[in-house]
């Protein structure tokens, strides 16, 4: 067993891992600076041909950890004659699509590469056509893979790589038999990589039976942080991070900020967007020469800029007392990196603030961070439209106060009085006209946050094999009824936990459980229409994570808000929002800061 912890100076570069040059080129184009710990450890092992068990969850970079070696091998060996070269099994269709996308992005330099996701809930036609054309990599949910094996449309005779992603989730969802069946159809001459966030005995059973002297790799969880750093998180889809960030920055108190993103390109992109919004921002990343980086850091130290957007590599050892806030715009790949990042604030005994953006699919990492730092990471509530507007009015009023208190204005006052008399316009109208020039806007009103898009792009949100896009009220399958559980994303509910609880407590099989749609404060689950009332009675006493699931038929009406954690409410939805500021403190700092422009 190998424990791997945060990336540091000893971490190898991608070019030192032994990847095929064509794969390496694609990785470099992705803007990744260095391998994540799980990648640094598993890539060389997989390239050497040994089986691997990786204890890693989403967000650690596990997809590249198994995709890059498989693609390197493919680049070396050329395509298989009969059936795919690599098969990846995933618990959900969302993950299947996402993994297939990742393969595509790492295979841009491989000639004629094709990857095919196959999952339940999708018509067979396109999948059959794709399989006939011959995909080198197939990514699928176990049930659908079995269906294709039975139909003869998928052959595993030439398979060289069998990869199980989120193996624990697959077992929780009742795919154990299917997985064993798949193993039995794969020849001896194949390599197995199994990734799982946890290692229940059911996984040990599979690895003991089917893996050959596997190397176990896990991301070590030994970290703690200074207690002088307050940690908060905000659950947000990737596409809404910038909006959320600018709202938070309007009401947060800060001097200097460091913001962490994943790639070199992202440092430049985010810095550019923040500059366009009036924040004095610069980017540093591993591509920028050391001297320039140091000059930029000095600018932060001297207050010439307020925000530094950085990658982990570029921010190593950075010590600037003025940093009072660390924003993890992208969640780090491992808890050690998180601890290093937030350690950039709270220097010299001062207190610091850390804000973490978490997308719904990264919730597990949040739990790991809490465990590793032995501290609660508190939910952050976005400031409401009213609060934002009030803050803007307050700041603008203060600017007027400051000018009136410090500047000799008699000459200009005469001009305004003359204007007012000659045009017969009240002084307040003239002042408002001038204010609109200063503000470059005729309003201080904040806009509501855009509504979060449902299940778009790469944000995986707890769907299940055979799942269908979001909907309200009724089940799509006429033999099913939709039930509502009183827990959701806010309680970090995972689909596996829903299946586990309902199957175990209700005494039904996981196959009888249909689509699961985890929403912010409730969850919709499709169950058979003819469910015995005794099952429902049993389920009515069921708890998940110590909370009653309060199962009841879904009326299709919006859920009751869950009082304790209202962090993902959006402003403008008619409910009351409280900012997460500490009482009594005034907002704003130095007068020339962009956020103080009102
Ligand atoms: P995963 O844990 O595989 O879901 O990956 C999480 C995210 O990290 C994905 O958005 C990847 O594109 C990104 N990623 C993976 N490896 C690296 C790396 N070495 N450097 C930066 N980002 C990475």
Automatic annotation (TrEMBL):
Primary location group: cytoplasm
Region (Disordered) location: 445-479, 545-598
Sorted UniProt keywords: ATP-binding, Cytoplasm, Helicase, Hydrolase, Isomerase, Nucleotide-binding, RNA-binding, Stress response
EC number(s) per entry: 3.6.4.13
Catalytic activity: ATP + H2O = ADP + phosphate + H(+)
Biased composition (Basic and acidic residues): 452-479, 565-582, 589-598
GO biological process: cellular response to cold; ribosomal large subunit assembly; RNA catabolic process
PANTHER family, A to Z: ATP-DEPENDENT RNA HELICASE DEAD (PTHR47963:SF8), DEAD-BOX ATP-DEPENDENT RNA HELICASE 47, MITOCHONDRIAL (PTHR47963)
Protein name: ATP-dependent RNA helicase DeaD
Gene field: deaD
